[in-house]
């Protein structure tokens, strides 16, 4: 599902890599759950709907929207999640939730059913990575799986993609793509980093994107830039969570 990009303002290029940022008007939307399913033992797919999605914008596969969950006090608990898919015409938005821990997002998504409501905000902006690089490296853990799955669906035929995914065997699933995909599943942080070290990066202009646990992603970036010599302007590394911290999101460069 795709959408046009109305009401967005392009900024200057982020780097010589042709990546660009766009900013969007921030808007809160009150949505209703229309479908909830467990697509693997530890991943829930929630489909939300509402007329306010008519002008929803998500221009990049790793956009983040703010989800507002009921908290114990007056203030809601807020978490960042990737729009997995959306349709302006159908007024629908799909979000996938990894079911680990007992935080507000995992608890809400585990119990969600049609008729429930959820408030979302954003995305604030998009970091648009062109699809016409000679190759793409996508790496991360289960929290990055929705973004990686969306990106693979966006890549055109003839594109080369290398994917490193740390996901439990029970939660591994086919990932659709027209691209030529080399997919490696691994079981641990250490195995993910070892897989990166074992890579021979292809020739040509490539872009690396990685997201997951903070310390692991910092190490991943170091491996790719300092050990492999990958262009520091052609990588985006993000901490989607941090071990021992309840709520963490950070861009690592």
Automatic annotation (TrEMBL):
Please list the residue ranges annotated as the FAD-binding FR-type domain: 26-130
Give start-end of the signal peptide. Answer: none
- What's an example of a GO molecular-function annotation for this chain? oxidoreductase activity
Q: Which InterPro entries match?
A: FAD-bd_FR_type, FNR_nucleotide-bd, Riboflavin_synthase-like_b-brl, SIP_FAD-bd, SIP_fam, SIP_rossman_dom
The UniProt entry's sequence similarity note says: Belongs to the SIP oxidoreductase family.
What PANTHER family does this protein map onto?
A: FERRIC REDUCTASE, NADPH-DEPENDENT, NADPH-DEPENDENT FERRIC-CHELATE REDUCTASE
Q: What protein name is recorded for this chain? A: FAD-binding protein
